[in-house]
């Protein structure tokens, strides 16, 4: 009678240790740096996370690298929407959601489309490329539903909750160590490309 009870207690201890040491599903996308960010963003639902140049941009979730922009083509003369992000990386999370970080100063050399990444894995460094030239270094962070590559107006941040919400409440949760899955709504039809 004592032996089965000991086995049960030992099994419960193993389960409790595993639950307590489980890796987080979601990670705040800027690591080991002081940051500031607001609830709102200009023009569309995303968040600019102000941090020092060179702070690590990390994957907020485990997934696969979707798109990588290694060349900053932005020009103030043309101000093309597809070029505004400068150096950028998007991840298709294992949760079925796309996460996008842009205005990077550097992208890690191994970060290429198709690369499998873990939550918290370094993808690049905060900067001020693209339309952020001349501003404080920051990470433009967007959450969206997956689309075909090149649909830049969706990947930069759209479709979260009611279509107007920024990632703010999710960033707050992740920064506090809580695993809060974003609520993303995919429309029946992709919205038309905006002018900017």
Proportion in helices: 10-25%
Structural class: alpha+beta
Main pleated sheet: 10 strands, antiparallel
Write down the CATH topology of the domain at 38-163.
Glucose Permease (Domain IIA)
Mean pLDDT across all amino acids: 88
Shape: globular
CATH architecture of the domain at 38-163: Distorted Sandwich
Number of strands: 10
Poorly predicted regions are 5-19
Head-to-tail CA distance between termini: 73 Å
SSE run: HEEEEEEEEEEHH
The CATH class of the domain at 38-163 is identified as Mainly Beta
CATH superfamily of the domain at 38-163: Glucose Permease (Domain IIA)
User: What percent strand?
Assistant: 25-35%
Instruction: Tell me the Rg in angstroms.
Output: 19 Å
Tally of separate helices: 3
Structure description:
- This protein is of the alpha+beta class.
- Helices cover 16% and strands 25% of the residues.
- It is built from three helices and ten strands, in the order αββββββββββαα.
- It has helices at 2-20, 152-155, 168-175, and strands at 30-31, 36-37, 47-50, 56-58, 63-69, 87-93, 98-107, 116-117, 122-126, 138-144.
- The longest helix is centred in the N-terminal third of the chain and has 19 residues, at 2-20.
């Amino acid at each position: 009678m004592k032996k089965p009870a000991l086995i049960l207690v030992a099994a419960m201890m193993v389960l409790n240790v595993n639950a307590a040491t489980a890796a987080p599903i979601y990670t705040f996308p800027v690591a080991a740096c002081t940051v500031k960010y607001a609830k709102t963003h200009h023009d569309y639902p995303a968040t600019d996370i102000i941090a020092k140049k060179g702070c690590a941009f990390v994957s907020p979730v485990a997934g696969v690298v979707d798109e990588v922009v290694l060349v900053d083509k932005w020009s103030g003369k043309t101000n093309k929407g597809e070029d505004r992000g400068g150096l950028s990386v998007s991840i298709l999370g294992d949760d079925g959601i796309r996460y996008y970080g842009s205005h990077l100063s550097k992208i890690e050399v191994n970060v290429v489309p198709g690369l499998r990444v873990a939550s918290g894995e370094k993808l690049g460094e905060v900067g001020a490329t693209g339309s952020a030239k001349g501003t404080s270094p920051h990470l433009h962070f967007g959450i969206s539903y997956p689309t075909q590559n090149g649909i830049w107006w969706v990947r930069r941040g759209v479709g979260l909750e009611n279509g107007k919400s920024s990632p703010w409440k999710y960033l707050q949760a992740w920064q506090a160590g809580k695993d809060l899955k974003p609520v993303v709504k995919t429309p029946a039809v992709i919205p038309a490309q905006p002018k900017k």
